[in-house]
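User: Modeling request: complex.
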Amino acid sequence: MKNKKLFSATRLPRFALATAGAASGLHATVVDQIGLRIVQGDFPPGEALPTADDSTEMLGVSRTVLREAIKVLAGKGLVESRPRTGTRVRPRADWNFLDPDVLSWRYAAGVSADDVKALFELRRAIEPMSAALAAQRATPEQVADLNAALAEMEEVCDDGERFAKPDLLFHQTILRMTGNELIGSLAALVETALIMSFRLSNDNPGGQRHSLPLHREVARKIAAGDGAGAQKALLVLIDNAEEDVRRSVENRNRRRAEREQTS
Amino acid sequence: MKNKKLFSATRLPRFALATAGAASGLHATVVDQIGLRIVQGDFPPGEALPTADDSTEMLGVSRTVLREAIKVLAGKGLVESRPRTGTRVRPRADWNFLDPDVLSWRYAAGVSADDVKALFELRRAIEPMSAALAAQRATPEQVADLNAALAEMEEVCDDGERFAKPDLLFHQTILRMTGNELIGSLAALVETALIMSFRLSNDNPGGQRHSLPLHREVARKIAAGDGAGAQKALLVLIDNAEEDVRRSVENRNRRRAEREQTS
DNA sequence: TATCATATGAATAGTATGAAGAATAAAAAA
DNA sequence: TTTTTTATTCTTCATACTATTCATATGATA
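Assistant: Request completed. Predicted assembly structure:
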């Protein structure tokens, strides 16, 4: 009389842009479900998750699958398992927010103005500097990649959906051009920020066209080997992007507030 | 006639400073062993790991444990498993180098001059900016934490071993003072850099004493709310630290070269 | 005959389950 | 208060079975 399949085992409709983690399999859906609930506060830090037996029954999966999922979450710093005590959520300070999965869970439900600020704080530290390094170190092939991405952006700049991919590629190429693998691992951060932008850009008629000249300027400076110029140009681009996102979030929040007042 | 325990199941003598991942259990040792071998190039990207059955036999663990380990590594972007094909190492660009474990594997065996450059490039982007934010946002308790760390550094500055802990705490406190969780997750990066420093600082008679005035200056500026000053002071501190490490690496490499020539 | 589609089979990871072990917090006893 | 016991929970192992995918062979068709 086991009450299986209480949760449907369908994976979250995860906004996949391009490089998103290609994890597949039953255990990946469990990782997603539990990870999302932890990050979004269903299980606060310090609290114990349901026991293994309870969880398997609720999720309708075997212990094998559940244990694999728990171990993955532990590897990302979210939980810690011990006999007798159970599996507990670790303090937020131990979570690896730069992990692509954690990052996506963190911003899956929606973002506040503070969330936007946090994301762009880090982008502003990383990307302009990366552009400067890119200008000094990029190989000709990488410059070609950058220009290819730019060309595709120009081609599809009216179609919000199709614009996302080359835009992401543009920024990630710059990170890769630094030749610094640590910086390259921040690609997920940029991806998250761009996904936010595109989710909110309904408000933004005229699509992403207005950002094109700024991107062009960045690419030109990098190709010319002008580190300082590239740095400055990318900083302007990020400032603009943040302003766009911030405005969208404000609009959305205001509309929601109005709706709630009316009803 | 199973040839078990071919590998001893002892965990790597992992330099644990403070916040290092508290993972325990048999599967964690397997994660370490395989992860280290992948990151250090024993299994190049694109190559398949031994089949599950072979691995379990070689490592002397059950399939359960091995699978948990593989899933954790997949969660860090290192590998990808598919039926029939086996488990393959993913391209380096997909590895999450900012994961604390990956970071520690990356620099476990030793560092080159380029490694030092990469680490400090990122620190230089992050920490001075963080100090500026910290100066604006820190709570009184956090300022007290920072001063406490500084006091302990002053107290034990002659003992290289004991100096490491408060030094790490000092830098991580600054990251936390930004109130930006994403930045906080870069703590592992700083930890790795400091571990490198301390591993190499045998060359450095007089211990870490010379860095104390610089740390004091940073703390003072932050406490005074002087963001620009704190930023500048921390930049100087990092430049000095990099110079120390760079020199140590050079010395070590030169000595090694001499040894090899003699023998 | 050559080519394409379709079945068959083998290899591998994926999932499920039962049972024994080890660790530890809490309760009970000294 | 200290020690011992107990119960709970994760941990590990062993094994059976399933699902996926690639390679090969087979057969149909042009």
